[in-house]
Specification:
By secondary structure, the chain is of the alpha+beta class. It is built from 2 helices and 5 strands; from the N terminus they run αβββαββ.
């Protein structure tokens, strides 16, 4: 499952917690991952994955966001990942909690 692969990878390279959904007890800074789509062609899987970076301020969220993008683009070092492309990125403040966040959406090919 691509979410597990990404979570395990980010857990080893980031200094903030990584979750599959917003935790009940919210840390100061954290990252969430969510598969938003996917498919399969010739037995090779692909996924569209949104990675959200949360922090106390927009500046800190932007810093974390840039770190996450850089690390995600290096995920091809894993044997299970065939390729990655940054699809889009944008400011995405959580309207419900008003917590600053950025979102990066990646297209990932994996085995």
């Amino acid at each position: 499952m691509i979410e597990v692969i990404i979570k395990n990878y980010l857990d080893t390279v980031l200094n903030v917690p990584v979750y599959a959904q917003r935790p009940a007890e919210v840390p100061t800074k954290y990252v969430t991952i969510e598969r938003t789509g996917g498919g399969m062609t010739n037995h090779i899987r692909s996924a569209m994955v949104a990675v959200q970076s949360y922090a106390p301020s927009m500046f800190e969220a932007a810093e974390l966001h840039e770190e996450v993008i850089g690390l995600m683009l290096e995920i091809t070092s894993l044997d299970d990942i065939g390729g990655i492309k940054l699809n889009s990125e944008y400011s995405f403040t959580d309207e419900e909690t008003k917590q600053p966040r950025y979102q990066a959406v990646f297209d990932i090919v994996y085995y």
